[in-house]
Specification:
This protein is α/β, with parallel strands linked by helices. The protein is built from 14 helices and 5 strands.
């Protein structure tokens, strides 16, 4: 029960922390519910019911199960027609405001000139636009690009090794690296292309996907990680290192990153230099970078 409530609280908080869109949605919902017959009641009822289902931890859990469970609570907010509903509410509010401030209102009919009426319409538009812009962002969390610029976003040891990569402006580089580096590499730069992602290590992310990694990519991942079964004979171990070094060279990988422990393998170093054309490019306390 506590885990359910914590998940619900985190999901709702991440949606509302950077703006007041949820509060604005509820205000618009109340406004439209109390407005006259011209409002599309079906739209209002649907939006209200979905909002209640999402705000209730138990029904939100049911929706998560329907959405294959492993997604975070934030994803259920996608069921809420936020943009369409706020736009509809803004149009209805604009109609009501201009009707009250212009000649459609009998009380103003004799005193409001055409120019003044247009001015009131413009005022209504500006007021609604200001309300919209002051409401923050409709995204679940802070813009990922802004976060990527923060030094504390990426772990220090990962940032150190990624800082050493030479990425030409406007070009991409092909990288194979351990899981903990892969997890942050695309956040560090969108110009880093990798053959596998976090879903290789976190199987839950691919539980409901039909496309799977090919055996050669899985083997490459395990080779980088040092997770391949150790051959019984030295000759077989050497052939294994040679095969993957040639595979990387043929595929055109610009950089290969290994942990220090993995890079200390003499057979690996020899195969990379002799059959892959790779040389040690840089080192950190935790990683060794090869390039060609």
């Amino acid at each position: 029960m506590m885990k359910l409530l914590e998940s619900w609280g985190a999901g709702t908080g991440s949606f509302a922390e950077n703006g007041q869109y949820l509060a604005l949605f509820l205000v618009v919902l109340l406004f439209l519910w109390l407005t006259g017959k011209e409002v599309k009641k079906e739209f209002v009822i649907f939006s209200g019911v979905v909002a209640l289902l999402i705000l209730c931890p138990f029904t939100a859990k049911v929706l998560l199960i329907y959405q294959t469970t492993f997604f975070a609570h934030e994803t259920v907010w996608e069921l809420l027609p936020m943009t369409a509903f706020l736009a509809y509410g803004a149009v209805m509010a604009f109609a009501k405001m201009t009707a009250a401030l212009t000649k459609e209102d009998r009380e103003w009919k004799a005193t409001i000139s055409g120019k003044k009426g247009k001015a009131y319409e413009a005022l209504a538009v500006l007021a609604l636009a200001a309300l919209l812009f002051l409401s923050g962002t409709v995204s679940f969390t802070e813009n990922i690009t802004e976060k990527a610029e923060r030094a504390d976003r990426i772990p220090v040891e990962i940032g150190e090794v990624l800082d050493l990569l030479e990425i030409p402006q406007g070009e991409t580089v092909l990288l194979a690296a351990p899981d903990e580096v892969v997890e942050w590499a695309r956040l560090y730069s969108g110009n880093i292309i990798m053959p596998y992602g976090r879903d290789m290590d976190e199987q839950g992310l691919t539980a409901y996907l039909y496309d799977k990694y090919t055996s050669d990519i899985v083997g490459l991942h395990d080779w980088i990680q040092g997770a391949l079964p150790a051959p019984e004979f030295v000759e077989d171990a050497y052939l294994q290192e040679e095969a993957y070094a040639q595979q990387c060279a043929s595929a055109g990988y610009d950089y290969l990153i290994f942990t220090v422990e993995r890079a200390n393998n003499d057979l690996l170093a020899y195969a990379l230099e002799s059959y892959g054309g790779y040389r040690i490019f840089a080192r950190t306390d935790n990683y060794v970078i090869y390039n060609r």
